[in-house]
Amino acid sequence: PRRAPAEPAGGRERAERELLRLMLANHPGLAGLHYEAALFNDPVHAAAYEMLRPALEALGPGEPPDLGSLLSGGDDGMTQMLSGLALADRPLAEPGEVIRKLEAEALDGRIQALRRRVAALDPAAEPEVYSEQFEELIALERQRRELRSPA
Fold this sequence. Notes:
mainly alpha
């Protein structure tokens, strides 16, 4: 995978890195939350997730992983990024909020792609396809509103 930039470019990348920080700390708030590699756009972040997840599953919530052995022998760029995240001197974010942000960002991408497809359709020529796609768009928009509304 390519090397991640030293400074995150945008909110999504910051959220991806924060989820990795939470994983490195094996934050107890992650227990019971559903999150997977598909939440990561950056291939380096997804690879880091794939490396961390099995190690964390073997530990109890809040039990810190052995970062020395976990990060030894890994991809240099990924190891440097994860080491930097593990040593970051700032409070950890709330896990549920970080995951909701990443889910909302992923949903936004799906909505944008579907809007483009719907806009390219001719409702008169393909009424069933248009209706199907439009209903899916409405459902995704509803899902996004629910995700972004306060819990």
